[in-house]
User: What shape does this take?
Amino acid sequence: MSMPLVVPERSAAHRGLQAAGIVALGALAVWASTSNQFVLGQLTVALLYATAIAGLNLATGYTGQLSIGHSAFFGLGAYTTGILVASHNWNPLVTLIPAALICFATGLLVGLPSLRIRGINLALVTLALAVAFPELVDRFPSFTGGQIGLDISVFQLLPPHWTGISVADRFQYYYWLSAGLLAIVLVLCATLTRSRAGLAMRAVRDRETAAAAMGVNLAWTKMATFGLSGAITGVAGGIFAIYLGSLSADSSFTLTLSITLITGLVIGGVATTLGPVIGGLAVYFVPYWTENLRQGEASELIFGVVLIALMFVMPEGLMGLAIRLSRRVLRIEPQPPARPDGRTGPPPPNGTDHPAARDSGPAAAPDHRQERNTA
Amino acid sequence: MEIFLDRLFDGISNGAIYAALALALVMVYRATGTINFAQGEMALFTTYLAWGLTTRNVPVWVALLAAAAAGFALGAVSERALVRPIEKRGLLATLIVLLGLFSVLNAADGLLWGRGNQSMPSLFPNTLQSYVSVFGARLYWANIGVWLLVAAVVGLMFALFNRTPLGLQMRATANNRESAALSGVPVGRILMLGWGLSAAIGAVAGVLFTPLTPDSLSLGEMFPLLIYASAAALFGGLDSPGGAVVAGLLLGVVEVLLPAYVPAVGGQLQEAIAFVAIVAVLLLRPQGLFGSREVERV
Assistant: This one.
């Protein structure tokens, strides 16, 4: 058998491989859920980080808008849930909806400067967001609890009856809540980034001017991506509040968290679907292990050295490396998407199933969305 | 009036330090096109070094020179060994390497010099009596010293940029690395020089800033400073050394005066307000106050 094995995209074999991968991940999640409470708690936070990183990946990985302000979205989501549950007695799960909406709106607002400010300048603007968030929380203590923090009663955060999870097993509930959210977010991101909108996002990242010339609406693409990115990170923050039950902006939602998230994104693999999962687990567990190995500064030193070494050895991240290595064994050959009328060529404008940009069809096909760009 | 002047003097001192660090950031940005997130930790490392020397009875001025020299070496080596090989992998990879360096330097400080807060001896007379009276306000010699030394450093840098062949080569490299290389500029050495000088400026800033507050030499000292300096650099225009200095001074003064005279700001929102103001300015002028406009060739 010749290497690499070539499998056409969307063929039965490809679908089979995908299904096998999903089953394997599901089995892994079930196996992990048999851990003890302490490890379950750790996994819950790590998976929430992974979700937050998946959100960040949309803005930074796919659209090229470097953000070091995502700690603010995580915190905003957490505080939305926290305030609504603690002060207004909402059902915790329902609060995730306003958390998503508020973070989406904030993301749109933050996306606004990105229309004029790029690259490292934009990173510094998002830095402003990360720095401002804890200060704002401290400024309005009647609302947020300020520096003392915001406590939610444990009784409000127990698993609902319909889950059938007993109070003693509540860590199972938090774990599956975060695992479920992560699964939904991963599917959402995978679908989005493989769609026509995903193509537009990557075009904006790789060559903005050319993307605009092709009829990509730069303003909307950037703002909407930032909004969605913020919303995903915010919902992860909301579940973080449900799990933790006690919020303090000065300890949980500072710039350090933003740096953790961006580090996780790069370690895991920028612009990959599963990279955020690996990255989230890595940034949570690696410091924990090095801390066990050596205390205090030595652990920080090891972490820094590992970070630098990783960038030198595999700048594409763990997932990027895995993808590159797996290509030696198995190659998924992109196929032009099928058109409803049976002809080949680019899909009609409403097509949502478009392979990566290397698809050679005339990309600038007539398109009703080809209005003049607004940038 | 006295209180206003007191505050103004303090603000100018802080602003001078921000200006120096912002200038260092701008020099790195012009060389490499990135923000050196490890700039503050480089400054902290060299400040600790200077403090370590003074505990062994080395005169402060000698310690300052040693710190600047160590900073130069640290910056130049970081550029050559860490940044240049990773630069072509993109902004994100460079950023992560610099964050790694941040972590390593901070941890090294803790391992070498301990976690406790230390007091750095001042370069200038630093007692409660060593001041001159200006309209009833006390202008301490320590403040004057900071102003003069920062002014000297900034002046030297501008003379270097604008009056020497070396400065011309640095500007050429910042402007267009390829063309500079084709014209015979040793681009690699110029980049190392840029990073080295910027870390040396950081070292001077650290040694000057730390004695302004007693017991302030600690592992977390430089990070807020880096944030302010980045804000100043961004405000002035990331590629404009003059802009960085003006914006740094402005930020230092506003940071002290605003909470004192606008009660709504209070003590906790300073950084947030500084940043919001800067973002607002950037929306109108994306290139900052004095930066050059980004032009894209199609």
About this structure: Chain B has one domain: 2-224. The mean pLDDT of chain B is 87. The beta strands of chain B are 131-134, 137-140. The longest helix of chain B spans residues 2-32.
